[in-house]
């Protein structure tokens, strides 16, 4: 095994461990706060706060032009002028904020979120600044500092939530203020520790050719991002429209258990974005992609199957009585997260190759299917209908991405293992929703079958990683 190939795995493993230290701890602490939120906020309050954060996530890429994606990708390029990239990202995002501010009074037209106008604007500002700064620091390969920033962000977020919700008792205002102040704390830490104020250059010195290249890279990603947003978030607006904000609150809480899985996938995804760029297109990188995908998909299937089985048990002590019905929605969302993670891995190929235009068709197709199914299923089945629509929307994206990736290189998609695995997960979901002893027994059998199906690949990957570690030590 060559030292170069070993270094690829070494860097990926190192980055995953660094991100795991910060992100996983943050996610676990946030996850453990769910009983606190559901006991203090009403289902309606939770629904409103979730609609606000979801709305900001929708408008952010439009006006920031997803400069956080561009800043990391171009900072990772060997020989890139880092200060140029950083300044351009801030300039473009800053102009976008000015335009967003002009349109922001539209928020005042909606009674539900009108009282929180100032908090929404503040949340937009700290979100785009935090995203750009974190992406830039990751591009500089200073993941240890972003890990510390993540821990500071989480500590402040939890502390402020306890203060504002339990002590001062200002409800949704406190929840939103906690988000804003925690983002601000993370920003200040990275600005001071990395001396980012020294990374700006004069506007006269800006390389406008590079600026155009960065915009050309990120621009096609906006419709892709919005389409992913429709798959992930638009159902909450439709649930609110058809069923009310109380049901939206229950539906939003149903997402909390899948965050156990999503926290792991986001950690891997953040590390993978860095490693996937290295020598893209070479035989060595293709082999790296295939082996990593095989290992990653196996972990997703096994982890997802186990989490689905434990859904009701976790909900019994995480969700307050008003929210407990959310457990019936959660298994579908876990399956959606698995399929979403598989699709996003494949999409990383197009990001690494800078061929981001290819992503648009897949995500738009999935969003269109998701919206149509939401309109059909939500009026009849409520939150479960929305969750099923989300699963099918992500499935469409995954299928289209698999077809498109063949245009770049041959990738081993492992469908002989993944398709039966998805079928077993669907059977498991149906079984546990019966909420009887026979159903739970069928669920256990499904988990065992998923483990057997993926066990060999999983063990092979572990052995492969052990060999890499030996090479690194040698």
Describe it for me?
The protein is mainly alpha-helical and 474 residues long. Helices cover 81% and strands 0% of the residues. The protein has 20 helices and no strands. The chain has helices at 3-32, 34-40, 43-64, 67-76, 82-103, 117-139, 143-167, 171-193, 208-218, 221-232, 234-243, 245-254, 259-275, 283-309, 311-318, 330-352, 359-381, 383-405, 415-433, 437-473. α5 runs antiparallel to α6 (117-139). It is globular. The model has no long low-confidence stretch (mean pLDDT 83).
What attributes characterize this protein structure?
single chain; 474 residues; mainly alpha; 20 helices; 81% helix; globular
Could you outline the blueprint of secondary structure elements for this entry?
Layout (H helix, E strand, L loop, with lengths): L2 H30 L1 H7 L2 H22 L2 H10 L5 H22 L13 H23 L3 H25 L3 H23 L14 H11 L2 H12 L1 H10 L1 H10 L4 H17 L7 H27 L1 H8 L11 H23 L6 H23 L1 H23 L9 H19 L3 H37 L1
Reading the helices and strands in chain order gives HHHHHHHHHHHHHHHHHHHH
Q: Compute the gyration radius: what is it?
A: 22 Å
The secondary structure category is mainly alpha
Major beta sheet, specifics? none
**Beta-strand percentage range:** under 5%
Low-confidence stretches: none
| Quantity of strands, as a count | 0
User: What is the arithmetic mean of pLDDT?
Assistant: 83
Q: How many helices in DSSP terms?
A: 20
Distance between the termini: 11 Å
The global form is: globular
- Proportion of residues in helical segments: over 70%
